[in-house]
Structures are given as structure tokens and as C-alpha cells.
Design goal:
This protein is 37% helix and 24% strand.
Length: 197
């Protein structure tokens, strides 16, 4: 059974380099490290790439369904709870400072519409998530989180600055290391290492 690695975001040039497309940005870095080029798959309405970490095969998926319907692209690839055990979803989290990641398993959506769509589609919460921080830090090193629906939407659909994209590129390298650890040593080991910072 292959690992299915998903990068959440929205298709279209207007969403390029926006915070809500962080999952897609990071998956692009993962693809360059472990796999071949993305090819559009009409049936899944997604950009699909194949790859390997060691001997473990990967299918990398960038849904072109728009965020709220991400589950439609994933459901045909994850048809059981057992298969969901090898699903890893990468996505943005404005409650985490830029540069941080958090790995979690079997949690609620936390209000993220893309994750909510996937939970409904695969009928379980028992899959891995890698949340990528997108918020600026305050003086204490915590996330400066936007408040209110309009401010949140404006923030997540805003574009990263060039210096923020450089930080994300380094985050992508960390995510590649985390994925290698997940595949080689399991999710608990990966969480103990990469959630410590």
C-alpha cells in the first residue's frame, strides 16, 4: 500500500504563493526531493506525482478541486481506514508561527475546511497531518493570529513576501526530513522529533 501525500490549496494563478496554498507549495518541494513531475489526472481532478522514500512508494496529490472539496480528490485513493493510515496531509495553519511545523494524527479538523472535507470523504480522522505555520511571530515567539472572519480570510488569501517564501523553502526541507522519519521510524518518532521545536 502506497503512502498518499496531499498538499492542500486552491488551483489557479491568483492563488499562487498565498498562505492558504502552503500545502501545495510544500508538496512541490517534497516532489522535487522524492518524485517525478506532477501530471494532471482528470478522474481525480488533481496534479499527481509518483515517487519513493527508500523502498516505500508514494503518490503525491495536489487537488484541483478547491480547498472545500479536497476530499473528492482523495476518496478514490483512500478506500479504507487501513489505507488512511498511510495518508499524510500537508496544510496551512495560521495559529502557528511561520517556520514551525506540527505533526498530528487522528484529530478533528480544527475548523480547516480542506481537512473537514477529507475527513468526511474518507470517513475517518485517523490519518496524519503536517500543519505548516503561516503567521508572523510576536515578541514572545508566538503566532500573531488574525481575529474575525473577514480578517482571517484576507490573511489566508494574502500572498507571502519574498523573505517568507525563503523561510517556507527551509520548512519544505524539514518536512522532507519528517516524511523520511515517518516512513522509516513511524509517526510517533516523527512527532517526538519535529514537534519539539
Amino acid at each position: 500500500m502506497k503512502y498518499i501525500i496531499v498538499g492542500l490549496g486552491n488551483p489557479g494563478e491568483e492563488y499562487d504563493n498565498t498562505r492558504h496554498n502552503t500545502g501545495r507549495i510544500i508538496l512541490g518541494i517534497v516532489q522535487k526531493e522524492f518524485g517525478d513531475n506532477f501530471i494532471y489526472n482528470k478522474k481525480l481532478n488533481s496534479q499527481i506525482g509518483e515517487g519513493k522514500i527508500g523502498k516505500e512508494k508514494l503518490t503525491m496529490v495536489c487537488p484541483d478541486t478547491f480547498m472545500n472539496n479536497s476530499g473528492k480528490a482523495i476518496a478514490p485513493l483512500v478506500k479504507s481506514v487501513k489505507a488512511a493510515g498511510k495518508l499524510i496531509v500537508i496544510y496551512d495553519d495560521f495559529n502557528l508561527p511561520l517556520g514551525r511545523i506540527r505533526i498530528s494524527f487522528n484529530r478533528s479538523s480544527g475548523g480547516h475546511n480542506g481537512i473537514e472535507s477529507i475527513i468526511k470523504a474518507v470517513k475517518t480522522e485517523a490519518f496524519l497531518r503536517i500543519r505548516i505555520g503561516t503567521a508572523p511571530e510576536n515578541a514572545k515567539g508566538n503566532a500573531r493570529t488574525p481575529h474575525g472572519d473577514e480578517k482571517i480570510e484576507k490573511f489566508i488569501l494574502g500572498k507571502f513576501k519574498d523573505e517568507e517564501l525563503k523561510v517556507l523553502n527551509n520548512v519544505g526541507k524539514t518536512v522532507c526530513e519528517a516524511l523520511e522519519t515517518i516512513v522509516r521510524d513511524g509517526k510517533d518518532k516523527a512527532m517526538s522529533i519535529f514537534n519539539a521545536g
